[in-house]
Amino acid sequence: MSRIVAVSNRVMLPRRGNAPGGLVVGVLAAMKSRGGLWFGWNGEVEDPCTPEPTVHRRDNVTYATLSLSSEESRDYYQGFCNSTLWPLFHYFLDGFRFHDAQYESYLAVNRRFAQHLLPLLRADDVIWVHDYHFLPLARQLRQSGVQLPIGMFLHIPFPHIDSLRVLPVHAELIDSMLDFDLVGFQTQSDLDAFLAAVRVVRGPGSVAGDDGVLVNGRCVRVGVFPIGVDVDLVQQEALLAQRGEPCQRMIRGLIGKRLMIGVDRLDYSKGLVQRFKAYEQFLESHPQARNRVTYIQIAPLSRSDVHAYAAIRSELEQTAGRVNGRLAETDWTPIRYLNRNFPHGTLMGFMRNAPVGLVTPLRDGMNLVAKEFIAAQDPSDPGVLILSTLAGAARELTEALQVNPYDIRGMADAMERAFNMPREERIQRHESMLRALRRNDVAAWHSRFLELLCQPAAATGGCSFDAEASRRASRARRWS
Ligand code: GDG
Predict the structure, then answer these.
(1) Residue of the CA atom closest to atom 22 of ligand 1
(2) 205-253 pLDDT per residue, tens
(3) Which class does domain 4-228+442-479 fall in?
């Protein structure tokens, strides 16, 4: 069996106190079950940056990591990754910035990481690259002669070409993504958007069906691989944590009030300001709920060096302060807003004790918290999930109370409905969503992706369309 080499911007060694984000949770699950090499950034910024990767072994995983220089951190990470690609791919065109020098840094970091990865590769490896930080990595590796199978999974949405066009280098980026052998997306609409962009950049004849793109006679397979959670593990974590001191303390702190919970990295894409306002409206229009419910929002800080993240942080502090200032009683704080990490199990225990879970991003590739909330529930008395239609998870979790995250009144109404939903309806909705979670759990996600990546294109029917006709069309385009 081939060795798996995972490449992601952030590599996190399993140790206490680390609060992994969604990507790391998924990659860690794949690496733990299969073993292999995990290569990427160690999260450190130093001048000069590490000349060679630092290598650690834990269980059956080898971790090889590099640091970034302060210039790379500013231009590649905070710049092109998090002020260009992240806002653009989440349709936040107001926050979108483009600077040539940052794009140059992005390419240079991809080149540097490719060079350091080369000596670590073996002849039987398959390389699985994660996310928007490394869209040109396959091109860099191919230019150094690597012929191994290389796949890319995009954890975030892929935008429609009409938005993507604002990026001056969009054609170059799309083109470089076609050096992968397999490109995977969270949802069908992400895949459709990618194929639409490929048609524009390489001509309509390059795509047929939705399983492949033909590039210079070579087939690049594409597909939808919705990331999931380990349902049994989340259930065990939730059950175990429920008896632990942090959960018991949280329950005591509620003094009998019913809990509504949100757990999100502090990010403007997660829709927290709108959520706070919807809760305020819910309490205003349903005064009987006051002093009966408490909303806990856990929001560990992320990317705090990026200006837009500092701005959202201060807006949230103000909004929570205003709601609490207006509505709190001597024995009741309406919103408890915590910028800190908790161990994953503790979070699952909190979720199990919440009659309502709030997951209302303005845009999200998938959103694992939505799936974890369902998995963590007591099936005989489950909580209700309020879920944004703009999260990838909404495609599978159709029995959640789906809301438009910009519709403050609609979200307030959903809160009222969730707190009052009869038990029978809650059970029926939960059962159906649990089935969906089991169909697309985290093991299905990584095994489907890796199986496809390990098979030659001919064996999978990728590019099953008329390759010769496509080549003729592309020749005709060149001469027209
Ligand atoms: C990206 C995409 C896609 C959160 N707080 C703590 C903590 N978490 C865990 C959650 C969950 C994960 O982090 C967050 O995952 P999400 O999917 O919600 O979000 P992103 O970080 O934005 O992830 C996203 C994902 O990649 C996977 O493909 O779903 O759309 O944006 O597992 O439980 N974990 C710990 N402490 C915390 O305080 N330990």
Answers:
(1) 22
(2) 898 776 899 998 889 999 999 999 999 999 999 999 999 999 999 999 9
(3) alpha beta
CB 257 within 8 A of CB 359: no
Q: How confident is the model at residue 475 (pLDDT cuts 50, 70, 90)?
A: very low
**Distance from the alpha carbon of residue 306 to the mean position of ligand 1, in angstroms:** 19
- Nearest to 369, CA basis, from 378, 379, 380, 360: 360
Rg over alpha carbons for the chain, rounded to the nearest Å, is: 23
Q: How far is the CA of 61 from the centre of ligand 1 (A)?
A: 21
- The protein residue whose alpha carbon is closest to atom 23 in ligand 1 is 22
Which sequence spans correspond to the domains of the chain? 4-228+442-479, 231-439
Active site residue: 90, 133, 155, 446, which one? 155
160 among known catalytic residues: no
Question: In the structure encoding, which two tokens stand for residue 279, read together?
Answer: 């809760």
Nearest to 348 by CA among 230, 192, 191, 476: 230
Residue 378's identity, in one-letter code, is D
Same fold, 4-228+442-479 and 231-439: yes
Contacts of 474 (CB under 8 A, 6+ apart): 202, 203, 205, 206
Q: Inform me whether the pLDDT recorded for 469 exceeds 70.
A: no
Mutate to test the pocket of ligand 1, among 368, 369, 374, 388 (most ligand atoms within 8 A of CB): 368
The CATH class of 231-439 is: alpha beta
Is residue 441 annotated as part of the catalytic site, yes or no? Answer: no
